[in-house]
Amino acid sequence: MSNAYSPLPELNALKGLEDRLAGQYFAPGFELFAYDDDDRDWFCGMAGPEYLERLIHFAYANASGSYYALWRCDDRADLATLPVIFFGDEGDLGVVACGLRELFRLLACEPDDPEDECPGRQEYVAWLSRNFGLTAPQHAGEVTGPAEKQFGRRFADWVRLATDGEIDI
Fold first, then answer.
1. pLDDT for 53
2. Contact by Cβ (8 Å): 9, 99
3. How many alpha carbons fall within 13 Å on the CB side of residue 142?
4. Origin, by domain of life (predicted)?
5. Within 13 Å and on the Cβ side, how many CA atoms surround 11?
């Protein structure tokens, strides 16, 4: 039996860093939770299990309950290349990255609010470079724009189908 956090090497590496940082945030409010925690139903019962199974929940996006999930938009073998979806605590919903590595870049951005302390940020940025050869984008839109362009319409259509049109994004 494996002690790995998940079947994704990228998330396992991030979990290792998060554990080493011992509670020090590296991005405002970001925190991994139990991989593929199926207790999260952003659709509030409007989507059937066949739709909910297409989402792999893995992290809080902020301290107020928003979270990230991978969207199984197809049956690709490399789960780390699935689009990353943001489920906001205030109803926001959208594609934020084309895959985990792009999300990792997004997490390296400077916080919008200067009061958002992230004592582990510099260690995270070094980890990102060392492990993946990646750097923070100059602007979040460098990551979110291409993700939305590539997957946004398709995701919105999927949400409408999953919720019988009850949710329109």
1. 83
2. no
3. 12
4. Bacteria
5. 26
Locus of tokens 């197809």: 74
Report the percentage of the chain scoring pLDDT > 90.
62
CB 15 within 8 Å of CB 8: no
Q: Parallel, antiparallel, or unpaired for β 84-87 and 93-97?
A: antiparallel
Which pair of structure tokens corresponds to residue 130?
């060392």
- pLDDT of res. 1: 42
- 114: tokens are 């200067």
Looking at residue 97, its amino acid is: A
Query: If you average pLDDT over residues 62-70, what whole number do you get?
Result: 89
Residue 35: pLDDT above 90? no
Which residues neighbour 138 within 8 Å (Cβ) at sequence distance 6 or greater? none
Amino acid identity of residue 92, one-letter, is D
Residue found by looking up tokens 């909910």 in the block:
52
Give the DSSP letter of residue 78: -
CA dihedral (140, 143, 147, 148) in degrees, to 10, reads 20
Beta strands 84-87; 67-71: pairing state: antiparallel
- Contact indicator for 161, 153 with CB cutoff of 8 Å: no
Contact criterion met (CB below 8 Å) for 106 and 144: yes
